[in-house]
Structures are given as C-alpha cells and as structure tokens.
Automatic annotation (TrEMBL):
Organism field: Microscilla marina ATCC 23134
Occurrences of domain DUF2520 (ranges): 128-252
Pyrroline-5-carboxylate reductase catalytic N-terminal domain residues: 3-87
Protein known as: NADP oxidoreductase coenzyme f420-dependent superfamily
Pfam families given in the database record: DUF2520 (PF10728), F420_oxidored (PF03807)
Length: 258
C-alpha cells in the first residue's frame, strides 16, 4: 500500500517505520516544519518530504493524519487529496466527523494505536490495541487489514467509545507518569535516589495488571490513617503542587473506600 504520512511527530515516526517494514511504501511525509518532515523521510525508503498541503498529485492509497488534535480540523480543511485516497487520523479524542469538511468525497476513518509513543523508545506493535472506525464497511475493512499487519489486537470502536478509552488512558498513563515525576522531584530535593522507588513502582503496576486495581489499593488513605496523612501534608506545605495532588488523591481514595 502507498501511504501518505501527514505528521512527523512521535506517532508518525513509529507508524511510518513499522508500516514500511511490513512492505508498505511511505511515499510522502508532511510536516508544517519541513525539517521535521525531512528527518522522518530520511529514515524511510525513498520518501519525499513536504510542507505543502496539496497532495492531489500524490499516488497514495491511504493518508494517515498523525498530528496533534487541535491541528487536525484546520489541516483537513486545507488539504487536497486524490479522489481514491482514503484518509484516517490516529487521534484518541477527535471524532470521525472531523473529516466531513474535507475538500472532496474521499472515504475516511480512524486508525488509533492505543499506546504512548516517544521517538527514542522502541515499540512492540504486536502488543498494541488498534481501534478502527470507518465511514463505511469497505473503509473499515481496509484499515483492519492494514492494522493486522502490525498487531493481532484490533477492535471496531466508535468515536464515543474511543473518547472514553482516551480519557481512561490519560488518567492511567499520562497522569501516572506525572506522579512519577512528582515523586522523583520530591526525592531529588532531598538528594535521595529515585531508584529506591523503582521496585515499588514495578510491583504496583504488576499487581494492577494482574488483578482488579480496586482490590489492590494500599496506603494511608485506604486505611484512613489520618496521622500519617497529616504528617505528609505538613512535609509538603512548601510544595503546593505536590500538596494539592496529595490532598486530591487522598480525598478520592477516601470516597471510594469509606
């Protein structure tokens, strides 16, 4: 399949290389910053780099839009595609209907890999769920077939279900990582190594993966140990951000378990 990759960020970087390894051809990489498009194109086999949105002469079977959410609609309104090209975005939050303002009658869909991506972190696509949605059955089948080259874990998910998944994913992934960063910062201020927490973090995640997380909650809040909680808040009094997080999460746990 000939693919036009619209975007050159983390998701585009991993998807483009993985799809090409499966025998697809990434013909063009687009980014509004040409140097970013060139960086990704250099990792691929004879891909062209561009910062122009007129793709009407590009012989692509599929255009994958892998840009930040608030850039999708403006980009869709600007771009021009050949009539036979299917277009799909990779967003967890943006609905399928964003393509209704596309210039042309192209079929469209969603090709959402439910994973966190960083350019320098290897990704095992065989473990990643793909959430697929299409404007019609034929489009959905084509996207399913493409996803099946990368992963056996493929699901037909509508825009509402995908939004719910994305909300849960942000809490489970992005918020959790921020809490790790907050913990590391607290330790760093006292010249204590974050490495001391890593076995605890690994055990916590492993228990959550192997059990119902509601059944594995531990700590002072679930025990309603008010003395420990107050001691911790006293220590955090000069760290308003961490103090607010500690208070909010403690209140949430208390509401769930008392």
């Amino acid at each position: 399949m000939n693919i036009l990759m619209i975007g050159a960020g983390n998701v585009a970087w991993h998807l483009a290389t993985a799809l090409e390894q499966k025998g697809n051809h990434i013909s063009v990489v687009y980014s509004r910053h040409l140097d970013n498009a060139q960086l990704l194109a250099q990792q691929l086999n004879n891909a062209l780099a561009t910062n122009h949105t007129n793709f009407s002469e590009v012989g692509a079977d599929l255009a994958i839009v892998a840009v930040k959410d608030d850039a999708i609609a403006p980009l869709v309104a600007q771009m021009q595609l050949p009539p036979q090209t299917i277009i799909a975005h990779t967003s967890g939050n943006t609905p399928l209907q964003v393509f209704e303002h596309l210039n042309g009658n192209n079929d469209f869909g969603v090709f959402y890999p439910l994973q966190t991506f960083s350019k320098n972190s290897p990704v095992d696509f065989t473990a990643i769920p793909f959430c697929i949605e299409g404007i019609n059955a034929n489009t959905e089948t084509i996207l399913f077939d493409l996803a099946s080259q990368l992963s056996p874990n493929i699901h037909s998910i509508n825009s509402f279900e995908r939004k719910v998944l994305h909300v849960a994913a942000v809490i489970a992934c992005n918020f959790t990582n921020h809490l790790f960063a907050q913990s590391a910062h607290i330790l760093q201020r006292e010249d204590i190594s974050f490495d001391l927490l890593k076995p605890l973090i690994q055990e916590t995640i492993q228990k959550a993966l192997n059990n119902d997380p509601r059944e594995t909650q531990t700590g002072p809040a679930v025990r309603n140990d008010t003395k420990v909680i107050q001691d911790h808040l006293q220590y955090l009094k000069n760290n308003p951000s961490a103090n607010a997080l500690y208070t909010s999460l403690t209140d949430s746990i208390l509401q769930w378990y008392t």
